[in-house]
Design a protein that fits this description.
This protein has 716 residues and is α/β, with parallel strands linked by helices. Helix content is 47%, strand content 19%. Helix 8 (182-218) runs antiparallel to helix 9 and helix 10 (266-283) packs parallel to helix 11 (300-321). The radius of gyration is 32 Å and the shape is globular.
């Protein structure tokens, strides 16, 4: 029956609200078919279900959509016998209610699109619902299918053929506002970022003004400076107030933009609960999906692109990862398989983990399938280690489309999953333990809005840490430190955490135990924690973290860069790199480079590019500091700024050529000047190579270093 045209706008809004209510009902139904719920919890769920169904019926009927009201009424009838005597809901009843909800939403969306007059009469569908519903006296006696029937159910096919219910698109709000393009929203975001930088400059000017007032005060209370001090103090207070108001405006604008451009992660994760449940039933398996981090809000475009990858990973986990219930019990596991989705954001990086407690990846099976499908040759597989074999599941053309009982390996279309992740400038990795399960880890950049960053210092180098990864701060005390032969540990909340010196980790100095009173940061990532020793905590900042250039994006230590109030570049360290065991036991690379530059920005970028090429990189902020370094360390190459105040690049080269130990050391000069005279001056001074800073930013540095080392006959 068509809806009154005068109510059509309200119907569109009702469809969006109904989608939210139906999702809540779906989650409650999935909970009701679980074991182990207390009677009080069951009763509350049934009361809430009844209230939601009654709301759907009343709202639909009030808008003239009697077909929807009838469907909701039938669902209430199916629920009534169990609501009167709360108990675990039998699966056949859950199936009926879920089917009814699907029917309700299909028709609701049709009404919202103005296609209500073309809908068939719902009488046949309602009659089917009634005939499928168990009689009240039988509903209480129904239970879950026995495990003995599982193998037969599993033989119906793989995940590709399973008609699993999933929304075609994320529900959107009713079209009652303005339409804007992505380009317009992005442009507005850039203006907000500019305003944020202005706010940071406000804060910096305020601190400078406070320092001036303090200096004047130290001169004594002279009558000649009284008026100036009074004016400066008043200006400082006003500037501070204006800065705070600017900060409030920036925060309000950013929150408004986030509300427009983001949506909660649960909007794509909640429907996956239904998908896992339906697919498990079709394959004769049992599985439960747990989600951690669904409260995060992310860019809508990113969520839409991620949804397909997560669906595919979970389908593979159920189809090829989890064993049949009887097999799990024989292996000493719970008959219900455990699936976990974990989402965590640290600064501008998003970490997603999809894990199962199934049989794990059968490495030998993967080899055989890869060889049989021509993905690799037998000679190639013979040279691969286990991690490399597991990575074969991401190759194009690798697929085990046979029944799950015939194959325990993974790989149904995982090349498409990797392609989706890499299209978002991310990466995906897999880890597996035979008999215990498999984990897929995805790392993706997010570039919407600012992030809280803690700025710390090691020697003269500033480094940023995502604030979300910093759990606590404290000062080193002898009574809480445990010093071993190779590593120091901090006693923290009943645990011994390894102490990591950020200066040593970044190659700025030799490793040493923390000094008394040195700041220690408790940094966590992926369930691991370390005590990070820093020289000083500069403070927290609200910064926009940008991805690094493509040439250095794979450097494991850095996740991005931000701009400080004076325009300085701040590199943001990856917490997962700091807490991994590899980070604690890293072997010194064969090739070593010394970067000499009085610009923190230049030093940081040169170092990132060289580390991408496998170099161990040490830094020096002046020519004199570089000479000190060369007294105790040896290097394969020196990259030096041409124009430095204390000792320029030409003077440093002259010093190096005077010494026998460094006379043939390759030196590359880098300069902001790209003129022919500057280049000739540098090469005439004895430099082996010359690059402009623009050429370095374009990714030329590493290639030039390797070329110069080759010409000099270095250990490259």
């Amino acid at each position: 029956m068509p809806v009154d045209p005068l109510l059509q706008g309200l119907v569109a809004g009702f469809a969006v609200e109904a989608q939210e209510v139906v999702q809540k009902v779906t989650m409650d139904l999935l909970e009701l078919e679980r074991d182990g719920l207390e009677t009080d919890a069951l009763a509350r769920l049934y009361v809430r279900l009844g209230r939601h169904l009654h709301t759907l019926k009343g709202s639909a009927s009030s808008l003239g959509m009697q077909d929807l009201g009838d469907i909701a009424h039938r669902l209430e009838d199916a629920l009534a016998p169990l609501k009167a005597n709360p108990q675990k809901m039998p699966r056949p009843v859950v199936d009926i209610l879920l089917h009814g909800l699907d029917l309700f939403m299909l028709r609701a969306q049709a009404h919202a699109d103005g296609r209500g007059d073309a809908l068939p009469d719902p009488a046949a569908a309602l009659a089917q619902l009634v005939s499928d519903a168990p009689p009240p006296e039988a509903a209480a006696d129904m239970g879950a299918p026995s495990h003995a029937a599982a193998p037969e159910a599993a033989s119906t096919g793989g995940a590709e053929s399973a008609p699993v219910a999933m929304p075609d698109a994320l529900p959107e709000s009713a079209d009652t506002g303005w339409r804007v393009s992505v380009r317009q929203v992005t442009a507005l975001m850039r203006e907000v970022e500019r305003l944020r930088e202005v706010r940071l400059r406000f804060e910096e000017r305020g601190r400078e003004l406070d320092r001036v007032v303090t200096l004047l005060a130290k001169q004594g209370l002279l009558a000649e400076t009284a008026e100036a001090r009074s004016l400066l103090s008043g200006t400082s207070r006003t500037l501070r107030t204006d800065g705070e108001e600017t900060g409030d405006i920036v925060e309000a604008l950013e929150e408004g933009l986030k509300a427009i451009t983001t949506r909660p992660v649960r909007t794509i994760l909640d429907p996956l609960q239904r998908m896992v449940r339906d697919l498990s039933r079709q394959l004769g398996k049992e599985a439960r999906l747990s989600v951690v981090g669904s409260e995060l809000s992310l860019d809508r475009r990113l969520l839409e692109k991620l949804q397909g990858a997560l669906v595919h990973l979970l389908r593979n986990a159920v189809d090829h990862g989890l064993e049949l219930p009887a097999q799990r019990e024989r292996a000493g596991k719970h008959h219900e398989g455990a699936l976990t989705l974990r989402i965590e954001q640290q600064g501008n990086l998003l970490f997603l983990e999809c894990a199962d407690d199934g049989a794990g990846i059968d490495v030998e099976r993967v080899k055989k399938v890869a060889e049989s499908r021509g993905v690799v040759t037998s000679d190639e597989t013979a040279r691969l280690n286990e991690n490399q074999v597991r990575d074969l599941i991401f190759r194009a053309g690798f697929s085990t489309r046979s029944d799950v009982t015939d194959t325990s390996g993974r790989g149904v279309g995982l090349d498409a999953v990797r392609a989706s992740v890499e299209a978002l400038q991310g990466r995906i990795e897999v880890a597996s333990t035979p008999g215990q399960g498999t984990r897929f880890m995805m790392t993706l950049p997010v570039d919407l809005g600012s992030s809280p960053v803690l700025v710390v210092r090691a020697l003269e180098t500033l480094v940023g840490l995502p604030m979300l990864a910093v759990e606590a701060t404290q000062l080193a005390r002898a009574d809480s430190l445990r010093l071993g032969k190779r590593r120091a540990h901090l006693e923290y909340q009943g645990q011994l955490l390894p102490v990591v010196d950020i200066g040593a980790r970044l190659g700025l100095r030799a490793m040493a135990p923390p000094a008394e009173g040195q700041p220690l940061l408790i940094v966590q990532s992926g369930g691991k924690r370390v005590a990070l020793a820093v020289d000083a905590v500069v403070g927290d900042r609200d910064l926009v973290i940008r991805p690094l250039p493509s040439e250095v994006r794979d450097v494991p230590a850095w996740q991005g860069a931000a701009t400080l109030s004076r325009g300085e570049l701040l590199l943001i360290c990856r917490p997962d790199w700091l807490v991994t065991e590899l980070a604690q036991t890293q072997v010194v690379a064969q090739r070593r480079a010394l970067v000499v530059d009085d610009s923190l920005t230049a030093r940081a970028l040169h170092r990132a590019m060289l580390e991408a090429g496998g170099f161990t990189v040490h830094l020096a902020a002046s020519g004199a500091r570089a000479l000190d370094r060369l007294q105790t360390d040896t290097y394969d190459v020196v990259i030096c700024d041409l124009d430095m105040e204390e000792m320029d690049g030409v003077q440093l080269i002259a010093k190096l050529r005077e010494r026998k130990e460094t006379a043939s050391l390759p030196v590359i000069l880098v300069s902001a000047h790209d003129s022919a005279p500057a280049r000739e001056r540098g090469l005439a001074a004895g430099a082996d190579g010359y690059l402009s800073k623009r050429e370095c930013a374009a990714g030329r540095l590493l290639a030039e270093v390797l070329d110069v080392m080759s010409r000099r006959g270095s250990r490259a």
